[in-house]
Design a protein that fits this description.
Helices cover 43% and strands 18% of the residues. By secondary structure, the chain is of the alpha/beta class. The strands form five sheets. It has an eight-stranded mixed sheet, with helices on both faces. A four-stranded mixed sheet has the order 13-14-18-17. A hairpin with a 2-residue loop joins strand 17 and strand 18. Helix 6 (165-184) crosses helix 8. The protein is globular.
Length: 429
């Protein structure tokens, strides 16, 4: 009996121990599980908060993208390429355009949103009935459309006019192409390029960021990507710097349908760009231009109706910007006349007068070093031409307006100084 009781007691102790151990283990497991559940819930909660935060930031960024580059920008703006018979030039130009279209991006609070795929439609207008060039355009991609001027009739020109026939063709071609994109297709603004132009990486960024100025300031009638005096030794090393100019630069420019309605009825038969510079057309309006050009002339630009006029001496030396600048993130309202003119007057009149010899030496006659901004006066065009040639600035006038000038003032860099070549009547600004 005693053995049986001992065995039963032992059995009860063993079983009790096992039950208690299992109970303790279960409690530990459940406790650990609850802790893990709490930890998982906490982590899940943190993850939700992060996801919601990222989602909010994404939503804000996407909203900003839509505001800055909404669908309307692509519906009302077109790139119009004027082309003739320069096969290789057009091929390179279209590649440059497509890359510029693809590479545009906007930096937001946390991310870079790349605008994948060409967004702005490209229309290439062909005038020379060149099969090889036509094939390039037709095979260039889905975003590129070919139009052709149906009017290929001969001009009734005098013997004297005959040598300028190429310019007659160009003026007629421009009228056809501009009228097509505005009057037939209904675009509100157009960026005009030519087949021999080189494009900066931020060419389209520059154009679209400045577009609103055309609609908001009636004193601005074009946005140009070109600086006639954009040689390396003449420019300030600031790729964000923009100016107003009374001279129509062309060579990569933008206009509105409203301006075209004004011009189309009186479009000239030849030399359309010089016609644009005439006071009757300009009507006191200005263009916006960059300090560092967003376009350049390719080597193939020597082949054309101008037969390389100015190319060797000036055009091939124009520097094209290489570092992308986000103009869309800048406040460009300073280019509006009401803001620009007072600031322009202040900086010009604040520049210290100096003579040609003093500027060339970098010192005043008393030996004092010249300040950063200096002013050199000219009285007549003959003075301007003499000074311009000395500094390597373009010296020609069109309809009484010198290249890049604003209120008769041409600014450029000479060594460490910024020179304002200024008419005596500058005080009238």
């Amino acid at each position: 009996m005693r053995r049986i009781r001992s065995f039963i007691s032992y059995f009860i102790i063993v079983v009790g121990t096992l039950v208690i151990s299992k109970f303790v283990v279960n409690i530990t497991i459940y406790s650990t599980r609850y802790k893990m559940d709490d930890d998982l819930q906490y982590r899940h909660h943190l993850l939700n908060l992060r996801v919601r935060s990222v989602a909010r930031r994404l939503a804000n960024d996407l909203h900003r993208v839509r505001n800055v580059l909404n669908e309307k920008d692509y519906l009302d703006t077109v790139i119009l390429v004027i082309a003739c018979n320069r096969f290789e030039a057009l091929k390179e130009h279209l590649e440059s355009l497509k890359n510029s279209n693809l590479n545009r991006s906007i930096k937001m609070t946390s991310y870079i949103f790349s605008l994948q795929g060409p967004k702005i439609p490209i229309i290439v207008s062909l005038d020379c009935n060149d099969d090889a060039v036509r094939d390039i355009i037709l095979n260039a991609g889905p975003n590129i459309t070919l139009i052709e001027n149906p009017n290929q009739s001969l001009f009734n020109l005098t013997k004297q006019e005959k040598k300028y026939e190429g310019y007659y063709r160009i003026a007629r071609h421009y009228h056809f192409a501009l009228d097509y994109v505005f009057s037939i297709l209904g675009y509100q603004s157009a960026i005009i390029t030519e087949d021999d132009l080189l494009l900066a990486p931020d060419f389209l960024e520059y154009m679209l960021a400045n577009k609103n100025l055309l609609f908001e300031d009636p004193t601005i009638w074009c946005i140009s990507a070109w600086n006639d005096n954009g040689k390396k030794e003449l420019i300030v090393k600031n790729n964000s710097l923009l100016h107003r100019t009374d001279f129509f630069p062309g060579l990569g420019w933008m206009l509105t349908s409203q301006l075209w309605e004004e011009l189309r009825v009186k479009w000239p038969k030849t030399f359309w760009d010089d016609w644009m510079r005439d006071p009757a057309q300009r009507q006191g309006r200005a263009c916006v231009r960059p300090e560092i050009s967003r376009t350049g002339i390719s080597l193939r630009g020597k082949k054309g109706v101008s037969k390389g006029l100015y190319y060797e001496k000036h055009l091939k030396h124009i520097i094209v910007n290489t570092d992308f600048y986000h103009f869309s993130q800048s406040d460009l309202s300073y280019l509006k006349k009401d803001y620009y003119d007072p600031a322009f007057r202040k900086i010009v009149l604040g520049a210290v007068p100096a003579t040609l010899d003093e500027i060339l030496r970098g010192r005043f006659s008393n030996g004092t070093i010249l300040p950063e901004n200096v002013r050199l006066f000219y009285v007549a065009s003959v003075d301007f031409k003499a000074f311009a040639k000395r500094f390597g600035v373009m010296d020609d006038f069109r309809s009484g307006i010198c290249r890049t000038c604003y209120h008769g003032v041409v600014s450029f860099r000479y060594g460490q100084h910024r020179v304002f070549l200024t008419p005596k009547e500058i005080q009238n600004i």
